[in-house]
Each structure stands twice: as C-alpha cells, then as structure tokens.
Amino acid sequence: MSGLTKEDIGYENGVLGGVVSALKVFAAPGDKVLLHSPTYMGFTNAVLSNGYQIVHSPLIKDENGTWRMDYEDMDKKIKEKNSCCNLL
Known about the structure:
Aminotransferase_I/II_large
C-alpha cells in the first residue's frame, strides 16, 4: 500500500471499537446508519450511544431458511433516508 506508515495503524479493543472508529471517520453524530435487523445488540448500542440514528433493513429468509440481505430494501432506504453507512 503506497503511503501507509506505521503511524497510520492503530489499536482497537474489539470489533465494536472498530465500528465506532470507522463511523467517526465516515459520519458525524446525528447521521443515519443502515443496520440489518436482526443484528447483534452490541452494534445497535454502539451506534446509538455514539449519537447516530439507525435505519433498519430487515434480513429475509431464503427458501433454505438462511438469512440474507435484502439488497432492494437497502438501496431504497439508502436513497430515501440518505443513510451514510452499511453495517452488519
């Protein structure tokens, strides 16, 4: 990677810290964040406790009972709500 230095690399104490750090780079408190539902409650709490708004995109079960992202719903909500990010 061109231009990447050791000073550009930081430590995160787990996935939730990484999610919050990424949000702080790409969004401002009060911005809308697209989350799938159901989702891990830690993601929900991390987003809300750091001042972001949640826009939910429900997961759907396919014919085999596997949860899948609904890409049409995601696209619609990102365009309608001007959501900034797509998380798990």
